[in-house]
Amino acid sequence: MVTMYYEKDVNKEALRGKTIAIIGYGSQGHAQAQNLRDSGYQVIVGLREGKSWEQAAKDGFEVMSVAEATSRADVVQILMPDERQAKVYENEIAPNLKAGATLSFSHGFNVHFGQIVPPANVDVIMVAPKSPGHLVRRVYQEGFGVPGLIAIYQDATGKAKETALAYASGIGNTRAGVLETTFREETETDLFGEQAVLCGGVTELVKAGFDTLTEAGYAPEIAYFECLHELKLIVDLMYEGGMARMRYSISDTAEYGDYSTGRRIITEETRKEMKKVLAEIQDGTFARNWILENQANRPGFNARRRMEAEHPIEQVGEKLRGMMSWINK
Ligand code: NDP
Ligand code: MG
Ligand code: MG
């Protein structure tokens, strides 16, 4: 078993009196900045002028340019979109980083794939909440926290781990449990999980089921409920008690169908393809394609986003959810 860290393992003094610059005030940025402030730490926010700047100022933070925030900070937490980080790092962060400061991330992509190459005189760490930003904030306000990962890429001061744990505690992660990993492991497993299972795998599975039913003449509304809506109810049971709890709750007929049909859908061929997907993450093929796609202003990404929005499951879903008062409150 890997080691888990909790509140008792944290030296909160490690960040006391230090200035933490949060760069970016989006999903993770607003949540981490506010949690750290509520935990008693000194937080400033680095941004360009615009909507986020106004929001952070309205939330009571001292907001300044990325360059100025970096030059004042002992810890610089980079929470801009991954595909923007390298350029902002090169122009505004690298020239202003203090020696002995901590450069920190919530995802290892840019460091692991060599898009950001930090100088030798800073600590480089990762503190990655395993949750969307808005839950990082909400769960903290409820007095608990979401689980998180820490990783040490470079330990110039000998205190990198202490800093990472104190930061993780400041955003609430050590209340739930923190696991230590590496930049490589976090980056590759995160990309694989979202591509093969959580996002790519699930959306294609849902659409394939929906298309099969509607092409056979069944009502799209019924197909929507069977293949998309009910997914949440099933996943909630798995989240609470694994597959066993889910299978305990469904009918024996559903359980028998689960056993007899699942492997006809996720076949040996699918598993082989998963291995290829993983290999292309490991050897940098996926990273290169995504970096080049951004440099070309995302033609493929934008086209795909539009086509996906046009799929009939999105039209019927919008109509049905409009009548689900409990979702739209
Ligand atoms: P967002 O897309 O929500 O971040 C957008 C923020 O970055 C905005 O405040 C935006 O400001 C700012 N920004 C964009 N470009 C610049 C720029 N050139 N200069 C200054 N600020 C800029 O990012 P996320 O919170 O989703 O992701 C942040 C990091 O956290 C990523 O590394 C991601 O992988 C990681 N992560 C994200 C999770 C999530 O829940 N989303 C979960 C776990 C990790 P403006 O309004 O001016 O555009
Ligand atoms: Mg990810
Ligand atoms: Mg059913």
The helix/strand order is EEHEHEHEHEHEHEHHEHHHHHHHH
Low-confidence stretches: none
Q: What compounds sit in this structure?
A: NADPH dihydro-nicotinamide-adenine-dinucleotide phosphate, magnesium ion
Number of helices: 16
State the CATH topology of the largest domain: Rossmann fold
Strand percentage, roughly? 5-15%
Classification by helices and strands: alpha/beta
Radius of gyration using CA atoms only: 22 Å
Relevant CATH superfamily of the largest domain:
NAD(P)-binding Rossmann-like Domain
Using the coordinates above, name the CATH class of the largest domain. Answer: Alpha Beta
Side by side, the strands of the main sheet go 1-9-8-7-6-5-2-3-4
Notes on the structure:
The structure is a single chain. The chain has a 9-stranded mixed β-sheet with strand order 1-9-8-7-6-5-2-3-4, sandwiched between helices. The longest helix is centred in the last third of the chain and has 30 residues, at about 220-250. The protein has helices at about 25-40, 50-60, 65-70, 80-95, 110, 135-140, 160-170, 175, 185-200, 200-215, 220-250, 250-265, 270-280, 285-295, 300-310, 310-320, and strands at about 5, 20-25, 40-45, 60-65, 75-80, 100-105, 125-130, 150-155, 180. The chain is built from 16 helices and 9 strands. The two termini are about 40 Å apart. Helix 3 crosses helix 4 and helix 10 (about 200-215) crosses helix 11 (about 220-250). It folds into 2 domains: about 5-180, Rossmann fold (3-Layer(aba) Sandwich); about 200-265 and about 295-325, no CATH class. Bound molecules: NADPH dihydro-nicotinamide-adenine-dinucleotide phosphate (NDP) and magnesium ion (2 copies). One magnesium ion binds near residues 190 and 194.
